[in-house]
Amino acid sequence: MTTILAISGSLRAASLNTALLRAAREHSPEGVEVVLYTGLADVPHYNGDLDDDHHLPAAVADLRARIGEADGLLVASPEYNHSVPGVLKNAIDWASRPKGASALQDKDIAVIGASTGNFGTARAQIALRQVFAATHSRVLLSPEVLVFTAHQRFDGAGDLHDTTTADLLRETLAALRDQIADRRAPAR
Ligand SMILES: Cc1cc2nc3c(=O)[nH]c(=O)nc-3n(C[C@H](O)[C@H](O)[C@H](O)COP(=O)(O)O)c2cc1C
């Protein structure tokens, strides 16, 4: 079983991006288990003075451990002002340390996103890919999941009713699963 930690960049209870991750869990392909990360609101602002074994906030230790234990990540983020929401960037900054040996180093990651607008978080996804280049993570190149006018694809309870998006989520998780397996396969 391939375990994927799903991280939403939105703290809203009615977040479309969190709903997208729940849909991904529901539509996950064979051999993939999606686990939702729910600790983002507890992660404090990055402070280098706290970034050592004696002072590390518990929420940060938990975040790093969960990323470290997962086989891969599925990150669904809103786009805020054409970029990555601060709360998500902050969590990535914590997770990116210690540099060169962080939980994000070599981690396989699929970046997806949902917006109410017409561009489906395209600009935020480009920005996130740049951040994950700095962390030496392995971001899945395709398929790309840009869920535009997302509010029209979920019902009032936050359940996805758009089969095209459901299929895309399944394909994305299958591609992430296969990327992880390929990398772990012994060299021929
Ligand atoms: C501060 C802020 C900035 C936003 N900037 C953008 C933006 O640049 N592009 C975009 O498509 N939507 C933007 N939006 C709208 C979000 O796409 C929309 O609120 C979305 O539902 C947020 O994701 P969530 O439902 O997961 O919380 C912005 C929303 C907020 C609150």
Structure description:
- Pfam families: FMN_red.
- The chain has five helices and six strands.
- It has helices at 16-26, 58-69, 86-95, 122-134, 163-184, and strands at 2-8, 32-36, 72-76, 108-114, 138-139, 145-147.
- Strands 1, 2, 3, 4, 5 and 6 form a six-stranded parallel beta sheet that branches.
- Strand 4 (108-114), helix 4 and strand 5 (138-139) form a beta-alpha-beta unit.
- The longest helix has 22 residues, at 163-184.
- It is globular and about 45 Å long.
- Bound molecules: flavin mononucleotide.
- Flavin mononucleotide (FMN) binds at residues 10, 12, 15-17, 78-82, 115-117, 119.
List the keywords:
single chain, 188 residues, alpha/beta, Rossmann fold, 6-stranded parallel sheet, 5 helices, 6 strands, globular, binds flavin mononucleotide, NAD(P)H-dependent oxidoreductase, Flavoprotein-like_sf, FMN binding, FMN_Rdtase-like_dom
